Amino acid sequence: MHRADHRPSRRRFLDVTGAVVAAGLTAGCTSDSAQPGRPAPTAAATPKPVVATGRHQAGITLPQPAQPNLLAVVADLGADVAVGPLLTELGQAIRALTTGSDPRLLGLPPGDLTVTVGVGPRLVRTAGASLPGAADLPRFSRERIAARARGGDLLIQICASDALLLPVVSAALLDQAGDRVQERWRQSARRGANVPLGNGLTAPRNPLGFIDGIVGPNTAAEQRRDLWLAGPPAVAGGTIAVLRRMELDLPRFAALSVAEQEAVFGRRRASGVPLSGGTLASGPNLGAKTPDGRYLVPADAHVRRAHPAVVGVGHMLRRSYGTDEPAPGLLFISFQNDLRTFTATLTHMDVSDALLQFTTTTASATFLILPGFDRKHPLGSQLFG
Question: d(Cα 183, Cα 168) in Å, to the nearest integer?
Answer without folding.
Answer: 16
